[in-house]
Every structure is written in C-alpha cells, then in structure tokens.
Amino acid sequence: MIDCLDHDRTAVRVRSIWALGHLGDDAVVPKLRTIAATDDDEDVREIAEKTANFLT
C-alpha cells in the first residue's frame, strides 16, 4: 500500500492515503507529511495532511 503513495495516478495516491488512514498505523505519518509538503496535486497534499493529523 505504501508503494502506491508514489504512483503516477492521483486517484491511486488518494485511495492509498485513505486506506492507510483507516488502517490506523501511525508509522506512515512521516511519509504522509512528506506527501503533504511535496505532492504536485493540491487534493493529495490536503488529504495527506488531514490523514496525518488524524493518525497523530
């Protein structure tokens, strides 16, 4: 699932973030914070930030 966070398709990245949030493993928070700061897509950045905040 974590490998999908770097996928070319935005929808795949969003669904991966969503799924990781539902799994509840806070070990992915650093990766989500990186995505929130660097992803090309504004929606992906926003979802990554919200998910990271939810997990912490």
Word description of this protein:
The chain has one domain (2-55). The chain has three helices and no strands. The chain has helices at 10-23, 29-38, 42-55. The N and C termini lie far apart (19 Å).
Keywords:
56 residues; mainly alpha; 3 helices; 68% helix; globular
Topology:
Elements: H1 10-23, H2 29-38, H3 42-55
CA radius of gyration is 10 Å
Question: What characteristic shape results from the CA principal axes?
Answer: globular
Q: Specify the number of helices.
A: 3
Proportion of residues in helical segments? 55-70%
The topology string of helices and strands comes to HHH
Main beta sheet: strand number and arrangement? none
Distance between the termini: 19 Å
Number of strands: 0
Q: Gist?
A:
This protein is an all-alpha fold and 56 residues long. The protein contains three helices and no strands. Helix content is 68%, strand content 0%.
